Amino acid sequence: MVSDVQPKQTHTGAVRAGAGVHLGRYVPIIDWLGRYRREDLIGDVMAGVVVAIMLVPQSMAYAMLAGLPPQAGLYASVLPLILYAVFGTSRTLAVGPVAIVSLMTATSVGALAPQGTAEYVALALLLALLVGVVQVVMGVARVGFLVNFLSTPVLSGFTSAAALVIGASQLATLLGLSIPGDSLHRTLLNLVRHLSDANPVTTAIGLGSILLLVFVRRALGRPLARWGVPPAAIGAVTKAGPLIVVVMGTLIVWGLRLHATASVQVVGSIPAGLPPLTVPRLDPDAVRALLPTAIAISFVSFMESVSVAKALASKQRQRIEANQELIGLGAANLGAALTGGYPVTGGFSRSVVNFTAGANTQLASIITAGLVALTVLFLTPLFQYLPRTVLAAIVIVAVASLIDVATLTRVWRYDKADAVSLLVTFMAVLVRGVEFGILAGMATAIFLHLWRTSRPHIAVVGRVGESETYRNVLRHETRTCPRVMAVRVDESLYFPNTRALEETLLRLVAERPETTDLVLIGSGINFIDASALAVLESLHVELRGAGVTLHLAEFKGPVMDRLRAAGFIDRIGRDRVFLSTHQAMQSLGCA
Amino acid sequence: MVSDVQPKQTHTGAVRAGAGVHLGRYVPIIDWLGRYRREDLIGDVMAGVVVAIMLVPQSMAYAMLAGLPPQAGLYASVLPLILYAVFGTSRTLAVGPVAIVSLMTATSVGALAPQGTAEYVALALLLALLVGVVQVVMGVARVGFLVNFLSTPVLSGFTSAAALVIGASQLATLLGLSIPGDSLHRTLLNLVRHLSDANPVTTAIGLGSILLLVFVRRALGRPLARWGVPPAAIGAVTKAGPLIVVVMGTLIVWGLRLHATASVQVVGSIPAGLPPLTVPRLDPDAVRALLPTAIAISFVSFMESVSVAKALASKQRQRIEANQELIGLGAANLGAALTGGYPVTGGFSRSVVNFTAGANTQLASIITAGLVALTVLFLTPLFQYLPRTVLAAIVIVAVASLIDVATLTRVWRYDKADAVSLLVTFMAVLVRGVEFGILAGMATAIFLHLWRTSRPHIAVVGRVGESETYRNVLRHETRTCPRVMAVRVDESLYFPNTRALEETLLRLVAERPETTDLVLIGSGINFIDASALAVLESLHVELRGAGVTLHLAEFKGPVMDRLRAAGFIDRIGRDRVFLSTHQAMQSLGCA
Known about the structure:
The first copy, chain A, has 27 helices and nine strands. Chain A is an alpha/beta fold. The two termini of chain A are 35 Å apart. Chains A, B: This is Sulfate transporter. Chains A, B: It is found in: Membrane.
């Protein structure tokens, strides 16, 4: 339809004002690095450092959650960040390992190989490769809008449930136990069974870490301010909770030799040196087995990072280009696959920290990557005595904030159907795991939509005062006349609601035997499919048989084009079609 | 919403003018038998006889197609017809065995037991029972509208493909071969392989029958009329084709003893006597295996019979009550299950014959049932020498008319998406069988709908002349003013199109920097889900940031209720909401 404002670029989101098709659109770093302003540097450096302080312990913790050795998390925090900085459109998105993707990695890879084996690590690389390929392909094919089929309620229900599953899965490590668990009830069951085997010292360190993390994040700010510490420093310190607990936990275990005396599980030796070059093995069976998860991760991680990226970008009048984001995240995952990492995405909390710490461009992420690189080069020996329970504590505190009851209550008040799809997703994830949960949620949302549209809202309208406005006679003070009935159908006409349409209109006519003319108002009809056209045809005949003439008013251009081409307009008569309801009523002597 | 004309009864179709809730609504025979008029009798008797003449051979032929002994078809043509006459709402629908349901029976039951075994017959009874239960439950639960999810194009593609599969499956019998075949290519492959084994005499009789059937139906009418035969008689004769070929075929085989000399396969001895009382065995595994097919048959057969029933009813100003139809058809299938039959439904061709032969009430069907009963009581010996190839010929001629190219061409011209779902269904049925074909078709139709709505039509509108009508500036001669942009979104706002909405509006604003006010016209917005609400919230903020004020106009009552309850109206300001676009433009000094 050349004559209409089609969202051509639209669902691709390419709406940066004046963004022509130039290289910078596909390699955004050219844009921002070329115009880099010196005054942005301080903010970028500050943010880069703060995020690195947060990321180093977090990445190791999430790697552990993913069932991988800690260095996998560190490796996944170097090249991926740089590649996203090159190809991503968000200035402040902080890419790297995140909790939910780590969980999805653990469940999917864990189904194919036992944790701790080289096979397991190799499959995680393959998964990252697949996620990267899926995202890049989706971005290049400009089908990023497909992820919209993941509705907000479904994503919310999924996130809350996943957070619970993650938290539960970390409880074991927190207590010094090692039990498997992909879905909540299995995990908790195992946990309760083995509770007596919990390691008291490990538990003490873990719980202590949680308390300290919460204290640093929530309560430390106020006293520091009272002592006159500059806000910037306070910001940095309150974000340094993970680092603090890591340092303290490590010192305690090392000082008291608790790994030996109280058998507190520690990270152990991490190979020093830059991320290794790794080439995932393309075993067809493994690819087939991991592809569904790869697609699920692509959707979920894209939704998570694009939503936070949009939120932050809008604060700075910047725009996010959805398909380019897919390419950026895809590149990051390909980077992870080639350098001993595992699937990554834009993390919510770290991105917010990055933004509030003053990041102006992706240079902040590049600085973060550099610091992580230095860490794996020189500081890995320090993690030797880092207790795993501390990392578990970091994960638990991180995911606690993901449990989202607010959305449920809000959605429940707004629309029961959406609330149902949220709850279905939530329960399905808890009971059957993440992939199934997402699919069940999407299916529920789609079915409820069809159900809704299958029962369209249909209103008899009358004239509002002396205006040319016609509204629902039951909602507004209107004037009507007996012979002419004007009916507005508030739904596109397509197969699920064809029968409802036919029956309602015939019922309305039957209820008003004096009716001689029926004006069908198409302002709410955005499309008419072949099934509905067939019903309109028979409706026209049935009404004529009942001595009622059918008229059309306010039908939209695109809809009229089709009806005309199908010959329907000629069959009912061109003089039965009116641009506005008012015109129709006037020519029928009813206004 | 008490304040609106909701299609409450609607999708149940209970719109017979003045139909209160009385027993006759649930047992329609009370309605029509009570008010039976003597002058209707002639028509009913005539139609009853004509349909019986057609049904006896057809029912045996379809039973054979279903892999059952011929009497199963006859049994399925007695009690089911009477039960439908009691519970059905159509005056002229002719219930009994039909080709497609017979095929679905053959493929589903054939997967569980070999044809010709008692097990096979028992499973066919069970299938009929399940279909009956599913239909009655759907009717009582008043969810008949669910079958609407089977769109016209999908049903058309399914029917054409099934007709091809049926025709192919009968070719074997026509040539005197016996080869299995559920999907087209397998059948044809086997056919070609064994073509050399074809029985020449059988083939001659079969092809002769086809030619005769076509001649009687198409060409016999004209000469008879020339010879002054009364139209009524002509009508009866031209419908008697099946009977004629059955008689002739039987006589030839019996006379020349071809079953012995040329080994022409014949029906053989059929037990005389009324349909036996049968009680299906409720084997859980079998139930689990057959239930999907039972549901598919329920949908397909309901769609077929309700569409023909509606078409015929509208000619006589009668109404079909969808859910009561399900109960009627369900009762018929339960009857079939209890009297040695197999799944039945309202047949298209026989119903048309019944109608044109003058049927006024379901008494015609009761007469038909009586005549079929007499046949199984006294005439079965006559079928001893009836060649199977004749029955195959009857099926082939019957299904030939089901291949529906007209719909494809029409739909293709009207809407490519519908055409695609039609073709997908067609191909899927040919390649993977009927159930898969239906599911694939429904899934395609639903996905294409979501795809369509994910890219909504969005138009900038302007004032048409001096009227209060505002239409697409690119389609109509309109007046606009630079500062104020009025945009009409022609789609309900929900998760698949949230991003498209956001990006398009922001792009439009970016393209017109002089814009200070954006009037969002909701005439085409029939619903806003939670995902879309979230986007509207952020859109409001983003626009304000860009110095653009958001206004709402022509938003519908139900939509406004939700937005108000969610507090969105308060956030954008109550004074930003207008009943009509014209009012909005006036208050913004742009009209």
